[in-house]
Amino acid sequence: MYAAHFGLFEQPFNLTPDPDFVYVDQQHQAALETLVQALAQGEGFVKVTGEVGTGKTLLCRRLMAHLPASVVTACLFNPRLEPVGLLRELAVELGCVPPEQDDEQALYRLIESALQDLAAHGHRVVCCIDEAHAMSSASLEALRLLSNIETDKRKLMQIVLFGQPELDRLLGQPELRSLRSRLGCGVRLEGLPLADFRRYLKHRMSVAGWHGPRVFSEGACWLLWRMSGGVPRQANALAHQCLVQACRRGTHRVWFKDALTVGLERWRLVGNLLRPNLAGVWQGDRT
Description:
CATH superfamily of the largest domain: P-loop containing nucleotide triphosphate hydrolases
Helix content: 40-55%
Number of helices: 12
Distance between the termini: 25 Å
Mean pLDDT: 88
Strand content: 5-15%
Order of helices and strands: HHEHEHHEHEHHEHHHH
Radius of gyration: 22 Å
CATH topology of the largest domain: Rossmann fold
Low-confidence stretches: 282-287
Number of domains: 2
């Protein structure tokens, strides 16, 4: 599409996560350090929340990569499982062969045995659950019961829940008050501040192969930041279309009016996923 026009090796604003394009801002680094410290201190449950596209999955992957080699990690990416299915997946993640029949108690005993065996060999287990806001109350309660498995000194399994803000409402249900009382720490991911947002756009263009002057004007950058709320996934969708606009005009510069045109079209497509009311945005060229 526009890659040849800009002399790029690949498109810089794809929506799929690509480790080559990772931009680590201060917020994400602070969140990572908080999680690592909380787990090192033995917290049984830790929570990470953030809107769609703020980098929760990226943080999950970075957390697993930063844990010591003695830590065994289990990752569950299908949160809609009911308790038996959840226990089955966890057992497999721990290297167990679950029973053929759906026997919840047998699965608990199998997992407990695996955790005790790992602890005897100097390992602790961290289980990360992505999209945890989609879990049922029954499955969360099953996790709480697993967190009861411990020695005199520490939990044998620590659990990190990654989810959208709806996770807070889910955990606020009366039947989950026992789990809620066990939360050791919580991290909230927000959109990038404007200064980081500028660097984010520049970083992705550079990684994709751009070596020329700044592509996004100050006005375009500001408007993209306003419309996306600084959320990388929303910003990627908007910036991609802005480069398409620039390519069509035969230029290597994205102006305020380009961003506004793209933003209005995006607003019609996704509505209130874009934070501000575009009708209130000044329609001059803030170049």
